[in-house]
Amino acid sequence: MRIHLTKKIVATAQPKEKPYELRDTHVKGLLLRVQPSGHKSWIVTWKHGKRRTLGEASHLTLDQARAHASQTIAEYIQQGLPSIAKRKASSITLDTFLSDHYAPWAKSELKGADQYIERLRRVFPKALSKPLAEIDTAWIERRWAARLKETTRRDTPITKATAWRDLAGLKAVLSKAVKWGMLERNPFQQVRVKATKPRSVVRYLTAAEEKRLRDALSERDRMLAAARASANEWRKARRRPAFPEIPEHGYASHLTPVVLLAMNTGMRRNELLSLCWSDINFDARMLTVRRENAKSGKQRHIPLNAEALSAVKQWQSQRGNSGRIFDVNGVKSAWGRLLEAAKVENFRFHDLRHHFASRLVMAGVDLNTVRELLGHADLTMTLRYAHLAPAHLAAAVEKLAA
């Protein structure tokens, strides 16, 4: 009910079976709420569905309630959010928020949550003891500048891409704090996105580089097989148990089948190393990247061409078919030595994924098919290979001449 409230009306308003409200026509947004118990309170509303209690009518007079309501409405008009609606600054620290709130959620929703949180703790140690509300824009800018002066474990400078990736991780954490009502706003909203120089050229192997890499893999397997045979002769002479023999044309270690599979499937390193034998369908010549192992969080299927299928079968004949296909945690050291032997420079293991995609595009495969094989959510990432389809682009331009 809308009514011009007076002191007498406030004092004599009688309770009813259900709560009711009297809206003041003198100050828009001020309400007197009367409960069935007879309790009366002042309410201010500044937007549909947005309201707060000002106090009890027995403690606030009509004039005081009108003054508070007028101030609230003015703040809403000027600032978009009245002070009465602002959350109090949280005293919870980043350390406590990570441990008690963010980590339990992340472990059920994010792949590699433990490593992600551990990295945040390592990169931002001085922020752990800070209340969330004290991590402001000024602190972020100072941390950005300081991060660029730091070095990696290999004593190489921290790049802008790495520095911003770390800050982006903290930004995501604070966004959750805002969503869960533990922080009023995310200070990163006022931070200008730091420009990072993208890799200008998609790196893939030239025909000569690919040949040298394959030759280096073959030579590595040959040398390791010869060393194994020599070691077994020595052990046999001394009546000691021999090591497993490496079959002719077999693989001396996991490195060769890992590289061959990467070159022919475009899988990411972690996706490869997480593969289990149950993910391979030999009859259908297909492997499955399970959603829990995929960066995108979505399952996908990749056909196995002749070389990939042969590599998997050969490795199965040597290692059996239970558990993980490659029972290792990484290939960093072996990969580095392989590149040195092949005299291939400026080439990461992840670039084998680019090599796979580049070869497909240059062979005339459409970008959407390449996108599906790589597991990209949309074409944005896949478009980096578009320039490798010159025949397709030339044919498009020739249509103008017609």
CATH topological fold name of the largest domain: hpI Integrase, Chain A
Radius of gyration: 33 Å
How many strands, which pairing sense, and closed or not: the largest β-sheet?
5 strands, mixed
Mean pLDDT: 87
Structural class, by secondary structure, is: alpha+beta
Provide the spatial order of strands within the biggest beta sheet: 1-2-3-4-5
| CATH architecture label of the largest domain | Orthogonal Bundle
List the secondary-structure elements in sequence, H or E. Answer: EHEEEEHHHHHHHHEEEHHHHHH
Number of strands: 8
Number of self-contained structural domains: 3
Helicity level: 40-55%
Structure description:
Strand 2 and strand 3 form a beta hairpin. It is built from 15 helices and 8 strands. With 402 residues, it is α+β, with helices and mostly antiparallel strands. The protein has a 5-stranded mixed sheet with strand order 1-2-3-4-5, with helices on one face. A 3-stranded antiparallel sheet has the order 6-7-8, with no helix packed on it. It is elongated, with a radius of gyration of 33 Å. The mean pLDDT is 87. It has 3 domains: 2-85, Integrase, DNA-binding domain (Double Stranded RNA Binding Domain, 2-Layer Sandwich), CATH 3.30.160; 94-190; 210-345, hpI Integrase, Chain A. The protein has helices at 7-12, 62-79, 94-109, 113-123, 137-147, 160-179, 207-237, 255-265, 269-273, 306-319, 332-342, 351-362, 367-374, 379-382, 390-401; strands at residues 2-3, 20-24, 30-34, 40-47, 50-56, 280-281, 286-289, 300-303.
